[in-house]
Amino acid sequence: MDPITVMLIDDHRVVRQGLRDFLELQDDIEIVGEAASGEEGVALAREVLPDVVLMDLVMPGIDGVETTRRLKAASPSTRVIVLTSFADDNKVFPAIKAGAISYLLKDVSPEDLAHAIRAAQRNEAVLHPEVAARLMQEFSTPRPNEAPVEQLTPRELEVLRLIARGKSNKEIADTLIVSEKTVKTHVSNILSKLHLADRTQAAIYALRQRLVPME
Description:
The protein is an alpha/beta fold. It has two domains: 4-138, 3-Layer(aba) Sandwich (Rossmann fold), CATH 3.40.50.2300; 141-208, Orthogonal Bundle (Arc Repressor Mutant, subunit A). The chain contains ten helices and five strands, in the order E-H-E-H-E-H-E-H-E-H-H-H-H-H-H. A five-stranded parallel sheet has the order 2-1-3-4-5, with helices on both faces. Helix 7 (154-164) packs across helix 10 (199-208). The mean pLDDT is 87.
């Protein structure tokens, strides 16, 4: 199996070196580049197309939120994990909206960071407990201007519930006894109908609409 390719974007060299030193010890993870600014990171990501990016939020020039937005446009298949010292609402929500799949604080253990990278490769979100609590508080009440769930077909609704439970496309396909291609089509339709950017936002929508229990 090919290793998970990872790129580091952080303006602190010592942080990048620490991340590299640990991650290079993992047999299934390969560091394919690092950048000290958002602009440099987007340009490099366009070249190397990493599976996962570890993204700092506070950097000179464009910040991590804007970098995430530009990077996702340049390399849609790349999963962005925010790795920052801040869990403020004005950083958490814009980062998730910009396309970050996971949000971790820099006090995360090395083992949990490696787990989050592997989870991101499977399109699964990992959130720091403090961040998860903020998201649940923010998204626990339905918003009056949200696209109504009634726009979805019964099958799309099933898929949305499974996304919210953290299931990958393969796991959804196995559960519903359909092909992965069919699942991808359903996911695309769900995001389009509900005006959502990615699976993370779809999961949050499902929680807010109480389509799955908030565990």
